[in-house]
Design goal:
The protein is an alpha/beta fold. The protein contains eleven helices and 19 strands. The termini are close together. InterPro entries: FAD-dep_OxRdtase (IPR006076), FAD-dependent_OxRdtase_HpnW (IPR017741), FAD/NAD-bd_sf (IPR036188).
Length: about 375
């Protein structure tokens, strides 16, 4: 078969990869010269630790696929680094203890470590914390270089063609007309619009059960030493269903977050890039219209948290940015798939899970469509 995929982000590219690996031909259109949305404005984390029990199977499958992809496409920068969620209060420690003894703890690779064992695993952590929840299955890829590397891999198959700077204007059956008047015809069209819920996506399927979420992040100059794992703080427990427990309910009832963290719905996640700098975030904003500028208070707060855990000053911040991703409104929905007609599907809304789940979601769509 021939597929036309609209959207050059991680979700569109994952669908292209799944189709090509099954022997099909793919034409992929991306309106920007290079994807510039949530796909590149993230941590590059393949985050098993916080996924709900109902999502664990597909998450572990995606983790397996990323490792396989990393073995064939080294440019994606896959590394099985694991993660440490560091707790600083007794209430957070209770949540970590509940997670480490939950029914899915072994599948996730959870182990609760005391400070000495944390520092043995991660010598760069010389600061203040009570314990660390280690997740051995978490991993990372290089979000800014993964898609170009995947496209080079796909192009080498001879069954893939990428049209950069090409906006799809109309879809009729299996034919896509772009902004230069060219017609791209396939047996199936898959539209992966990311956070662009209006325009072509709305014309095809109307209003979808998705919303947009805005975040702020930053990146430092090289740290000068290695972080062997990704790190998170106890506030991250609040944003991942995998940590649901009575202990989490008590933590949230205490309203123990700082004013800045609560106001900006913050968690601290930190991953070291291959160049040595740290990507640090993030915030959550759900009500539109979103501001066009970024707020400095979250950056100051995050800097303080990371410095407390590392026990040292951070190198200079060299980049700050905001990003917007698409999230399905139904908390039970991993992604939103809407059928426009027999030959056209719209797929969006994985939330902050696009990089984590992309390969498995592409594979799942291929199964659903009998590719």
């Amino acid at each position: 078969m021939r597929l036309v995929i609209i959207g050059g982000g991680i979700l569109g590219t994952a669908h292209a990869l799944a189709a090509v690996r099954r022997g099909h031909e793919v034409i992929q259109l991306e309106r920007e010269v290079e994807a510039r949305g949530a796909t590149v404005r993230n941590f590059g984390l393949v985050w098993v630790s916080g996924r709900s029990a109902g999502e664990l199977e597909i998450t572990l499958r995606s983790r397996q696929l990323w490792e396989e992809i990393g073995g064939r496409v080294p440019g994606v920068g896959f590394r099985p680094a694991g993660s440490l969620t560091l707790v600083r209060t007794e209430a957070e420690l209770a949540v970590a203890e509940a997670a480490a003894t939950a029914a899915t703890a072994a599948e996730r690779g959870f182990e609760l470590l005391d400070p000495d064992r944390v520092r043995a695993l991660e010598p760069a952590l010389r600061g203040k914390f009570l314990a660390g929840l280690h997740c051995s299955t978490d991993a990372a890829v290089e979000s800014r270089q993964a898609l170009p590397a995947l496209r080079r891999y796909l192009d080498a198959t001879g069954r893939y063609r990428f049209f950069a700077g090409t906006e799809a204007r109309a879809v009729a059956g299996g034919t896509v007309t772009d902004d230069r008047g060219r017609r791209h015809t396939g047996d199936l069209v898959v539209v992966c619009p990311g956070a662009s819920h209006s325009g072509l996506a709305r014309e095809l399927v109307g209003d979808m059960p998705v919303r947009r979420v805005r975040l702020q992040m930053m990146q430092t100059a090289p740290l000068g030493e290695d972080l062997t794992t990704a790190i998170a703080d106890g506030d991250s427990f609040r944003y991942y269903p995998g940590y649901a427990s009575d202990a989490l309910d008590r933590l949230e009832a205490e309203e123990s977050q700082s004013f800045v963290a609560a106001r900006h719905r913050m968690q601290m996640l930190c991953v070291q890039r291959l160049h040595g700098g740290l990507t640090i975030g993030d915030t959550h904003e759900y009500e539109e219209p979103f501001a066009f500028d970024v707020d400095e208070a979250p950056y100051e707060y995050l800097t303080g948290v990371v410095e407390e855990l590392l026990g040292r000053k951070l190198p200079p911040v060299v980049r700050r940015w905001a990003g917007v991703y698409s999230q399905s409104i139904d908390p039970a929905a991993i992604v939103t798939r809407v059928r426009a007609d027999d030959a056209v599907w719209v797929v969006t809304g994985p939330g902050g899970r696009g990089m984590t789940l992309g390969p498995a979601l592409g594979e799942e769509t291929a199964d659903l469509l009998n590719l």
